[in-house]
Amino acid sequence: EEAQRLSARLSALFYLSEIESGQVVLQQDVIELDALLSTVIERIQRDIELRDVTLEADLPSLEVVSDGQKIERVFENLLDNARKFTPDGGRITVNSGLDASESRAWVEVSNNVENLEAEELPLLFDRFYRRDRSRSAGGRGSNLSGSGLGLPIARDLVSLMGGTLSASLD
Known about the structure:
Mean pLDDT: 84
Number of strands: 5
Strand order of the largest sheet: 2-4-5
Low-confidence stretches: 133-144
């Protein structure tokens, strides 16, 4: 089990290095954003239901041109992070839409997080940053053995595709 975790961590670190060094090539796929998000949501559904976490999604039908595999990885990382750090009985919401000019799509993943301070927000995207376990959800079914690379990978992939990724307290 430890060897698998180390292997996954190394794989994520190599991938992050490839992104940062410009070695990752983008594909241009037509993607049904709502269908892709729904598929990723289904992957975490069982775990969050076991923890009595509510997930609400407002996903209008949208087609975008982007790299399907990379955008899927972004959503997997964001939703997995929300799954891990939403306390039992908490709530995750996923919304998407078009900006005012209808030229760019946006996706918002929000969740309850216990004891998150504004000063901690920029750290969430730092390599290997992991919240103090005593302040994390850590509920039944929660696996906090992440690599600390999911959000940095998501941020760098979004940037590579010309977008932005941020965290806020709202």
